[in-house]
Amino acid sequence: MSRLTGAGEQRGAEVIDEHGDTVPLPVVPSDGDPVESDRHPERPSGPPYAPILKKVAIGLAVCLVAGAGYAGLQYVADAPASPNSRGSHQPVSTPTTDQAQAGVQRAVAGEAVLQKMTDAVAHDDTHEFLNTIDPQSTAFQVSARMIFGNLSTLPLGTFQLRYVSDDTNGLTPDRKLELGGTQAWLAQVEVSWQLSGYDVTPARETLPVTFVTRDGKTYAASFSERYAAGQRKPIWALGPIELAKGKRSLVIGLGSKADAKSYVSVADKAVESVSKVWGKKWRQKLIVYLPAKQAQMEGILGAQPNTYTQIAAVTMAELDTPAANAPVRVVANPKLFEELGTQGRRIVLTHETTHVASHATASPVPLWLAEGFADYVAFTAVPVKDESAAKELFKAVRAGKVPAALPTPDAFAASATELPQAYEQAWLACRLIAEREGQDKLVAFYRAVDRSGSATGLADAFKSVLGMTEAEFVAQWQKYLERLAGA
Q1: How far apart, in whole angstroms, are the C-alpha atoms of residue 357 and residue 370?
Q2: Between 303 and 120, whose confidence is greater?
Q3: Is residue 392 over pLDDT 50?
Q4: Is pLDDT at 32 greater than 70 in this prediction?
């Protein structure tokens, strides 16, 4: 989206002070094993934001952040395959008995290495972990030492590496020649880890791991070779991490300790603000990933380079498939988060924390309700002036362009030309419910749609909770917008 500065100006709201059986994944070439995921230089994104004091860019802080955040998993699922990738749709020849036996031998050798790694992490044994690393892969030895240090720093409840599949053609001839040994191959490995005190279930991702056998012993030679389009990277593999722990939050940063600490109080406040509206029947814990570079953010999300140039933060379930009780993280865009200032960060984190509490990443609620409710909670915590927060929508309504219906999912796409209006419409729809029926009814309405599990869940909730049809609500909402806009 090319409206970075424009969106910020359009929704630059004045904040009122608080005190007032696995298929092998496709593979793409890699340049080696960088410690940090910064291989793709960022393109210019238009005029930069000026420093923000009490004026915060709500277009960045709220309008843009959640659209991409909520849709993050869908983006990963729909990520285009690289033109150079080896997709699963290519014809696959039936393996011979010898080939099958060789595959089993590779799997056994690779699994043995992974088990030694797992045991070393469990026993906090650096020496044993580094013994699994190829002695001739000097760059990866540095990365492996960093990775082990990160895993030792995290409050791990569980950690497991599991051999899933391999691709005998995954490594180029030149790469095999470079590795040497009697054989070298690329495998897909499932890594799962659970953060004690925060996660109900383990996070899971798939890593491309290169193995090499030399002198009768098999080693790991890379954790970052030939990532597929859409394949996510665990934060602990991207660079040295720093932890900052709050009462209700854990910030995991790839920058300085001070940077991580600076977000703890804001994250704790976000949890408290969400609980005041949503209630306390959720874990009331928040994990924030704070990359040092946008490229690291996109690596964590499995996104194409520069996809999130205009997005301040994303809510992500750290699983390959959305599920209830999935470990959910808020991933910040470091540059844009820094520009928001304390109040802007609070709006963003409150919005994203609402998605965490309401498990929006696995919920059937329509986007307008998910995003509008998150905006409602955020703006309840940090009040904004209507004229500023709904500037673009009010301008359209005064020009006679009253929305005919609640915003569709397409309206929240990052490329949508009227993206700010979609968020403004959704927010005011939710606020109308709260004003007319009470905040508890708004929460009950969201919960009813969330747990419906039916294609008619939204219509049913309109009737059972609000006592009206969607059409009747839209008519009231249209009049509400006209009144607020002074049309």
Answers
A1: 11
A2: 120
A3: yes
A4: no
The pLDDT of residue 335 is 85
Q: Is the pLDDT of residue 87 over 70?
A: no
Q: Coil, strand, or helix at residue 109?
A: helix
Give the three-state DSSP class for 107. Answer: helix
Cβ atoms 192, 41 nearer than 8 A: no
Nearest to 332 by CA among 363, 301, 358, 357: 301
Q: What average pLDDT does range 244-273 have in this prediction? A: 94
pLDDT of res. 51: 25
Number of H helices, E strands in the chain: 19, 11
Is the separation of the CB atoms in 219 and 134 below 8 Å?
yes
- What's the sign of the alpha-carbon dihedral 419, 75, 347, 343? negative
At 39 the three-state DSSP class reads: coil
Q: What percent of the chain has pLDDT over 70?
A: 80
Q: In angstroms, rounded to a whole number, what is the distance separating the alpha carbons of residues 413 and 63?
A: 11
Q: Is the pLDDT of residue 47 over 70?
A: no
* Residues 413, 75: Cα–Cα separation, whole Å: 11
Q: Smallest Cα–Cα separation from 361: which of 333, 330, 331, 323? A: 323
Q: Tell me the average pLDDT across 70-76.
A: 32
- Could you give the CA distance from residue 15 to residue 53 in angstroms, rounded to a whole number? 10
Question: Measured between alpha carbons, how far is 466 from 46 in angstroms, rounded to an integer?
Answer: 44
Extract the tokens encoding 215.
């002198």
Give the E-state strand segments of 34-138 in sequence order: 55-57
Mean pLDDT for all residues in the chain: 81
Alpha-helical runs (H) found in 138-253: 138-153, 173-179
Q: What is the dihedral of CA 483, 375, 418, 359, to 10 degrees?
A: -140
Q: What is the DSSP string of 69-93?
A: HHTHHHHHHTPPPPTT---TTS--P
| Side-chain half-sphere CA neighbours of 439 within 13 A | 9
Give the C-alpha separation, 230 to 31, whole Å.
17
